[in-house]
Amino acid sequence: MAKLTLSQVGKTYAAGSQAAVSGVDIDIADGEFIVLVGPSGCGKSTLLRMVAGLETVTEGEIRIGDRLVNHVDPADRDIAMVFQNYALYPHMTVRGNMAYGLKNRGESRQAINDRVEQAARMLELTPYLDRKPRALSGGQRQRVAMGRAIVREPAAFLFDEPLSNLDAKLRVTMRGEIRKLQRRLGTTSLYVTHDQLEAMTLADRLVVLNGGKVEQIGAPLEVYNNPASTFVAAFIGSPAMNLLDAQVEGGTLMVEGHRLAQVARDAGPVTVGLRPEDLVLSTSGLPLRIDYVEELGAQRIIHGFIGDQPAAVADGSPDAPLSDIVHVTAARADIHLFDTTTGKRMDLPAETQIAEATA
Amino acid sequence: MKRAGFDSRWLPVFLLMPQLAIILVFFYWPAWQALQSSFYLEDPFGFGSTFVGFENYLRLFRSSEYLRTAGFTVVFTVLVTFFALSIALLLAVKADKVLHGARTYRTLLMWVYAVAPPVAGFITLIVFNQRWGPLTEFFALFGWDFRVRLDYTDTAIAMVIASVWKQIPVNFIFFLSGLQSIPRAVREAALIDNRSASARFWTVTFPLLAPTGFFLLIINTTYALFDTFGLIDTILRNNPGDNPITLVYKVYVDGFRGQDIGGSSAQSVVLMVLVLALTIFQFRMVDRRIHYT
Ligand SMILES: Nc1ncnc2c1ncn2[C@@H]1O[C@H](COP(=O)(O)OP(=O)(O)OP(=O)(O)O)[C@@H](O)[C@H]1O
Ligand SMILES: [Mg+2]
């Protein structure tokens, strides 16, 4: 177990091509569960694989514990990796798969056996120890891959979308198991996913990547409540946050000519972010022309347009009748403001800002 | 849809007819002929034949010349198969590392494969030419007077080298595609689990190549036993003399040159039994362990 430090880490695959990852700084505390999240192609796997030693580091430094590992062999980094397609050795039994890494490190037979048996018990794999991977279900293979990582007792676990080959239900179960297991073992973990829900539920801290750069690092709720940019705002949370072009006119935030809130800002264009679940139906406010409604049971998602900008509202009372146009409002604390050109968050939510201004 | 019972029964048979006819005419019929004539002693001038029972077979196994040929064939097959497989595997592993080069590599080696056996044999003759063959000169540097077709061992060596050379490309292609079909993540997992490259090769890569390797083992054995005929014939310039020959070549020499139809047929039958045994062995192995996914 150890901390993990990435400083100014970058990766350029071919000379002259665009960097796949650049300027990444992350300090991971001992025992912390960090989730790298971002859209496809943003460099999550690349970053993880650099930590594993499967890709060369073209810029910056990676430290595991206090040891600089940029040029250390993957086998000597004291990490264990769980791959998306499990990457089990098809010619070895479950036991063989788990024992392989330990054998190569010259552990005693007795020690290997004990650890394999223990991991198998923990993952409920004991009945399958002598089977080959092809005779296992997807979920069982996934657990073997976990077991293979656990028995090594590494300084850090690296996961590259380990659940994405499982069906939705199993994914939720395994997600919980991974989290419990990590808590119990207290092993520092770096976990890659493109599923924001998985990221939210697993992480101690999220690292949102965009185009190879860190967009925001923070605890899930912190990122959810205070997205640092429109990118993060749109990526974290489901359904996605509504981002609307708006104007500040004389301290009033106007969306498509309708008043939304008072803000202490200079006049000019802004992007306003409103989470569908923060919007409430009311008699006044922004008019939403309904396009279609998704019924989810406990709630319904109303999709429509404010002016000609698309917007969604999560409505918690799905039985109430709807007219063609509804009005929505949001509490001041739930209004996020972003710079229209840079997409960066302008500052704290409106309420805090007003509170500070009056204080 | 209504189906006529008549059609569904006879149509497949009808469609298979050409194939069945070919097998019948070019395999079963000659095989049957061989089996039959192996029990007869044929008059060299074709004036009739006498039933002799197992005499032809007994004569075969009492003949020291036949046993010597059989011995050579075994050694030859083992050597050709071993070197053709191991050299190809080595090349494939190297090529797999520099994947970009693999394509040109592949094309180059395929050329050798495309070379027809007589041409291959001819090239071998040039390379081993007594007076100016490059390999002969190379061996001469070490004080080795290499004499193809004059020296039993030297001829055998030339045959093995030519046969191996000819078979490497096929093996290479199969090994390379076998290597490339090993999932990248599995190799990477091994990279994390094992620091020694050679240990990784023997514990992960090699076992995963086993299906390909086993298939090639059968192919190469068959090749060395039977398909080297053309090459050997060219090297021996159709005149074996005291040089080593393989069993298949002996069938030809005894049957067509020696006009010993009965003995030659008996030899063919022995070879057919060998093929049968190989096939059974292959099916049993494939059924058993060498299958992963
Ligand atoms: N071996 C490689 N050679 C060249 N470019 C690569 C290589 N691997 C990845 N890239 C590029 O680097 C960028 C980041 O890729 P990466 O695989 O890290 O994305 P990712 O975030 O893991 O995406 P996904 O969610 O689809 O797995 C992509 O633009 C990709 O095209
Ligand atoms: Mg990826």
Automatic annotation (TrEMBL), chain A:
Molecular function per GO: ABC-type transporter activity; ATP binding; ATP hydrolysis activity
GO cellular component: ATP-binding cassette (ABC) transporter complex, substrate-binding subunit-containing
PANTHER family attached to this UniProt entry: MALTODEXTRIN IMPORT ATP-BINDING PROTEIN MSMX, SN-GLYCEROL-3-PHOSPHATE IMPORT ATP-BINDING PROTEIN UGPC
Domain ABC transporter, chain residue ranges per copy: 4-236
Species in which this protein is naturally found: Allosediminivita pacifica
Transport keyword on record: yes
Name of the protein: Carbohydrate ABC transporter ATP-binding protein (CUT1 family)
Protein's UniProt keywords contain ATP-binding: yes
PROSITE patterns named in the record: ABC_TRANSPORTER_1 (PS00211), ABC_TRANSPORTER_2 (PS50893)
Family: Belongs to the ABC transporter superfamily.
GO biological process terms held by the UniProt record: carbohydrate transport; glycerol-3-phosphate transmembrane transport; glycerophosphodiester transmembrane transport
From TrEMBL, chain B:
Compartment(s) where it occurs, according to its Swiss-Prot or TrEMBL record: Cell inner membrane
Lipid bilayer topology: Multi-pass membrane protein
Domain (ABC transmembrane type-1) ranges: 74-282
Subunit structure, interactors included: The complex is composed of two ATP-binding proteins (UgpC), two transmembrane proteins (UgpA and UgpE) and a solute-binding protein (UgpB).
Keyword Cell inner membrane: yes
Keyword annotations from UniProtKB, A to Z: Cell inner membrane, Cell membrane, Membrane, Transmembrane, Transmembrane helix, Transport
Name of protein: sn-glycerol-3-phosphate transport system permease protein UgpA
TM ranges: 12-31, 70-93, 105-128, 156-179, 199-219, 265-283
A cellular component term, taken from the record's GO annotations: plasma membrane
PANTHER family reported for this sequence: BLL4140 PROTEIN, SN-GLYCEROL-3-PHOSPHATE TRANSPORT SYSTEM PERMEASE PROTEIN UGPA
GO biological process terms held by the UniProt record: transmembrane transport
Function summary: Part of the ABC transporter complex UgpBAEC involved in sn-glycerol-3-phosphate (G3P) import. Probably responsible for the translocation of the substrate across the membrane.
Family: Belongs to the binding-protein-dependent transport system permease family.
UniProt key word Membrane: yes
